[in-house]
Structures are given as C-alpha cells and as structure tokens.
Amino acid sequence: MLPSLRRKLEVLAERREELERLLADPGTLADAERFRALSREFAQLEPVATALSAEARAQRDLAAAQAMRADPELRELAEEEIATAGKRLQELESELMAHLLAKDPRDEGNLYLEVRAGTGGDEAAIFAGDLFRMYARYAERQGWKLEVESASPGEHGGYKEIVARVEGRGAYSRLKFESGTHRVQRVPETESQGRIHTSAATVAIIAEDSSDVAIEINPADLRIDTFRSSGAGGQHVNKTDSAIRITHVPSGVVVENQTERSQHANRDKAMKRLKAMLVEAETSRREAAQAQDRKLQVGSGDRSQRIRTYNYPQGRITDHRVEGLTLYDLPNVLDGNLDALVERLAREHQADELARLGKE
Any stretches that span the bilayer, and where are they (predicted)? Predict the structure, then answer.
C-alpha cells in the first residue's frame, strides 16, 4: 500500500479515537443532536479500526512464523503459517483500501424507477412489463415499498412507460447500476414462424435524495398541465382532472403523477421527481467529466448504452459491461432474484475505484 494511502487510514483511526473521547464527554451526552451525529460518524469509522487491528495481528503472526523458520523441526509448519498470514494480509489490505473510497451519500436512500419500451413495438412493451415485474419482485424480497406514480399500458400487455418510487434502506445502492438499455431475444407469442426477435427497453434509476446537489427551479420555467387519471382508482378517475404533467422547458424533462386524488398531492409528487431528475442529470454530467473511462455508469448514465441481454432460448443473461458476467439462470432472475448480478456489479465498481485510487 502506498504511504499516502496508509497515512489516510491512520488519520481515520485517529479520528475514531477522538470520537470515542468526545462520546464519553458529559457535554456531548447533554446535546442529543450532537451525540447522534458523532455516534453515526463513530459507527462509520469502527470497521476501519477493526480492520487495522486485524492487520496488526496478522503482521505479528507473520513475524512469529518467520522466526520459526530458523528451527528445522518447525520449518514446514512455519511455511504454512507464513502463507496463511500473507494471504490474510492481502485480504485486509483490500478491505482497508475499500474504506478509503468515497461513500455515495445517495446509497442508503430511495429511488425512482423508470422503465420504457424501446425498439420492437408491442414486444418491447411486453418486455418493459417483464422488467418492471422483475424489479418489483426484487423490491418485495428486499422488504422495500414500491409505489407506481404513472403508467402507460401497452396495447397487448406490458407498458409503453411506467414510473415508480422505491422506498427502502439501501435501495439506490443495490439498483444504481441497472440504468441503460436492456435487450431481449425471444420468440414473441404472436410469431407464427418461431423466429427469434430482438427488442429493447430502457431503465433509469434516479436517486430521490438530492441533498448534496443544489438545484434551483424557476417557476417561470415550468409548464403545468392537468388531465384525467387513467387506470386503477374507481369512478373518481373519470370525473376530475386531478393528474398533473409538469414540463421543465429549459431541459425538456417531463414528469407526470396520477396516483393521488387531488391536484395538489399529484403536483407535490411530480415536483419531487422533477427535482430528482434534474439533480441526476447534473450529477451524471459531473461524473462523466471526471471519469471518461467509467465502465459502470451510475444513476441515469447513458440510457442508449446496451448494458444487458436476456436470451430466452438459451436461458442466458449477459451483462456487457463486465467481462465474463453471464448467468444461465434467466427464469430465476426474472422472478426477482437479482443478487448475483447486483453483487457482481458492485464488486466490479469497487475494483475500478480502487484501481483509480491507487493511480491517484
């Protein structure tokens, strides 16, 4: 590990010791808000201290094993212990470097999920519906809450477009690499000749938490339209123009909400999503300027980028951003079992960031 990186770890360890003293101070205990803030920071730094302690133990084990090599009777055992300690030190170094990576403040927050049919006509809309169900089932398995905010059904099933809000701790961190174009290869039900067709749908994952980026929205830049809600909701949806469509004229971003019974409630929800989308666009612009070689686009990223192919005849899923990331488990993944993909993408992203940190 580079000396500069080692020093950064030492600074974190020193800060953790300082926090320990502050948390024991009566003045801190008397200030509930400050105590909570310092407790959160202490909890974030605790894994660093634990890993440094483990590294120190492994280094002592390595030194003891190396000393044993001088004894012919213990040399074989010493070599085994040296190998074990060396491997452990390599693992701990990777773990410690991971602690140096900047934490994305959006990771623990909620998100907006947007799925839109792309090329392929009716089959693309059906595939968009399949993707949305996949994410909805994954959210259910994670214990997250999913609420549809607007939807435009396809003529023969699925969706031309569907937007939902996903609420749950860590939701954004788990799904932030899903943005992009998803391609499907299968025989449509309407295909009489049994030919395989290729269709596509786009997915956008937009963080709801935008506290780290300031965006000012000028009311004069907004065009607000009302219309009648469609879909579930009983007779009410046919009687009042309660649905809201907001267009941000400078950027061309359009958001809709039709899930609430009042214009006011729908407008509030639409404005929250509009702000999230504008922040996401600004964040993506900054990240693209800083990392041209990024393999895994975060957030909305480049929606024209083909990121994944779902091949039904072979039961195969291939993620094109990571070499060798192919799973022959299509039905299981479409049923919402996304962990194998999500965790591999997270590891790949961490490896890229660690490589960049080492260069810096």
Answer: none
